[in-house]
Amino acid sequence: YLGVMPAYSAADDALITKLVTFYEHLKDSPAPSHQATVLLFDPRNGSLKAVLDGSVITAKRTAAVSAIATKLLMPAFAEVLCILGAGVQAYSHYEILTELFTFKEVRIWNRSKEKAEKFASSVHGPVRVCSSAQEAVVGADVIVTVTMAAEPILSGAWVKPGAHINAIGASRPDWRELDDELMKNCFLFVDSKEAALTESGDVILSGAEIFAELGEVLKGTKPALPEKTTVFKSLGLAIEDAVAAKFVYDAWSAAN
């Protein structure tokens, strides 16, 4: 799958296109499932200013948006963080969530226990490797799903009432990470309603009602509801890549 994601921000003086390849590797592969390149252009004349590592930008900006959602939607006394998946997005989410918030316990589960153990041994803090997704999820306050699952791996029956879930994987209309029970008994937040209703199998196949876009919460037109069970379904927006790429370019320019 080849995705082309163009965006322009007048406020940030940023014009970009991100090219991202998406391959489902059936066996362990040295190549990541997602690989991306960002092309940054001069909005005044269209000339190419920079070629940036889109994989790093994608990992960082996705986790940053999840962190915003977590700050707004997580329960007041969140102590347990659970991550389902052990790929690139698991690392970027772990880094930013443990930097911004204080958790007493971090748990991880992955289909390959070897990858989960590698994750736990390579990050800076203690992480408990769990033998099942259920073991990792039960009692968790913040849950992050960053898997390549095509069928639900997170059951609503396991989820603590009032927990917050950042759902990052299952970015196709026929793929799921979350089951119907969870989707229909949560308050659902998305980055884009239009995208969620055409791209997210979790939303489309469950028939779940979207409560708000994250931007509506930030603008104050919709409430955050941190006392409720909440799901943030992240699909990613090209404008996030534009702002992130310009930020990186400006920092590099200032240093050089």
UniProtKB/TrEMBL annotation:
One Gene Ontology molecular-function label: thyroid hormone binding
EC number: 1.5.1.1, 1.5.1.25
Enzymatic reactions: (3R)-1,4-thiomorpholine-3-carboxylate + NADP(+) = 3,4-dehydrothiomorpholine-3-carboxylate + NADPH + 2 H(+); L-pipecolate + NAD(+) = Delta(1)-piperideine-2-carboxylate + NADH + H(+); (S)-cystathionine ketimine + NADH + 2 H(+) = (3R,5S)-2,3,5,6,7-pentahydro-1,4-thiazepine-3,5-dicarboxylate + NAD(+); Delta(2)-thiazoline-2-carboxylate + NADPH + 2 H(+) = L-thiazolidine-2-carboxylate + NADP(+)
Top-level taxon in the UniProt lineage: Eukaryota
Record-linked InterPro entries: NAD(P)-bd_dom_sf, ODC_Mu_crystall, ODC_N
Gene3D superfamilies: NAD(P)-binding Rossmann-like Domain (3.40.50.720), ornithine cyclodeaminase, domain 1 (3.30.1780.10)
GO cellular component, as recorded: cytoplasm
One GO term (biological process): thyroid hormone metabolic process
Broad enzyme group: oxidoreductase
Subunit structure: Homodimer. Binds the thyroid hormone triiodothyronine (T3); T3 binding inhibits enzymatic activity.
Entry-linked PANTHER family: KETIMINE REDUCTASE MU-CRYSTALLIN
Family: Belongs to the ornithine cyclodeaminase/mu-crystallin family.
Protein name: Ketimine reductase mu-crystallin
Species for this entry: Manacus vitellinus
